[in-house]
Design brief:
Length: 350
């Protein structure tokens, strides 16, 4: 991991029958994945991310019965996602930043490990699920690299972002109840978000941005009570943005930017019939308040000056000492002004 190794990946690595974890992340390997890797019958984690590999996505992974962590991101893998990759034991699948085409296969609903999110029944001690605390796997479900070791057993993630995947989001994907992170941004996915997306009740990260998705955003999205990151930008969604529950905290308008037919909070575009509604008025109260404040301010200047002037005149009329002091001061001030003018004229004439 993180070396300057290059050339082809040695075929001999595929004959290490008792190898648990192979991490070739961030090197300069090229060529194809050796077919001998299908002999790694004990492998649990395989990470060849961030290399220059160019190959069809491997279908022989179905022979790796214990494989749980498969990271092929940031290479030049191409072709359709093979159904053989839908192995029940998979809990982390990262195929991001490749040249994958075709649809997301419905068999993604067969990831039993993600459905059940099993974290119980494991042995206590330095080894969890076959990987020791010293083993590290690198993943970037939230847009930046993260490393996992002792927390591996709690990671359930699918990242297919930045490929050329098309078609619709399969409804079978909504059966992965234990999924924590789903990133399918930067593809050519179309159709609607499945209404049953609320079934992914443990989801913390959801990125569907930069696709061709359309239709209404399902209200069930508000059922995702653990959601901390949401990005639906640059699609073709329409209608009212759902509200309530966790979505109240996700109030950044950039989440929905690039969807010109969306309306309602947190963006400033009202939905039809909202202009007279109390809710929309509250959301735009600050905008209107400043204009109203200026109107009332200027309207009150005239009466205020008049009342002040009348009060001043009344004080001079009823309080003799004020009247004497005022006119005496005015008289002295007038004399000073007259003297100053006379001196100035005299100086000017000379």
């Amino acid at each position: 991991m993180n070396n300057n190794l290059g050339g082809d990946i040695p075929i001999s690595l595929g004959f290490l029958r008792f190898l648990w974890y192979l991490n070739l992340h961030n090197n300069n390997f090229q060529g194809k994945l050796p077919l001998s890797f299908q002999n790694l019958s004990s492998i649990i984690g395989l990470d060849v991310g961030k290399n220059n590999l160019s190959d069809i996505l491997p279908g022989w992974t179905s022979k790796l019965l214990d494989l749980r962590y498969l990271i092929l991101r940031s290479n030049n893998f191409y072709g359709k996602i093979p159904t053989d990759i839908c192995h029940p034991s998979i809990q982390v699948l990262n195929l991001a930043k490749n040249d994958i085409t075709g649809n997301i296969p419905p068999c993604f609903g067969n990831f039993t490990a993600i459905i059940t999110s099993y974290n119980s029944g494991k042995e206590e001690g330095p080894i969890y699920g076959g990987l020791s605390y010293e083993d590290i796997i690198i993943d970037d479900p939230k847009g930046y690299e993260l490393t996992y070791s002792s927390t591996l057993d709690f990671l359930y993630s699918i990242d297919l972002s930045n490929n050329n995947i098309s078609g619709e989001i399969p409804k079978e994907l909504m059966n992965l109840h234990g999924l924590l992170s789903l990133n399918i941004a930067g593809n050519r996915l179309s159709g609607r978000i499945p209404d049953t997306i609320g079934k992914l009740d443990k989801l913390e990260f959801l990125d569907l941005s930069r696709n061709e998705l359309a239709g209404h955003i399902p209200q069930s999205l508000s059922n995702l009570s653990f959601l901390s990151h949401l990005n639906l930008s640059f699609n073709d969604f329409s209608g009212r943005i759902p509200t309530g529950n966790q979505l109240r905290t996700l109030d950044d308008p950039s989440i929905y930017v690039g969807n010109n037919q969306l309306c309602g909070p947190p963006i400033l575009k009202p939905c039809p019939g909202d202009t007279d509604s109390h809710d929309f008025h509250n959301n735009n109260e600050v905008e209107f308040y400043s204009d109203d404040e200026h109107v009332w301010f200027y309207a009150g200047i005239g009466p205020g000056l008049l009342v002040g002037f009348l009060g001043f005149c009344a004080s001079l009329h009823f309080i003799p000492t004020w009247r004497y002091f005022y006119f005496h001061s005015v008289e002295r001030f007038s004399d000073k002004i007259a003297l100053s003018i006379a001196l100035w004229r005299r100086r000017f004439q000379n």
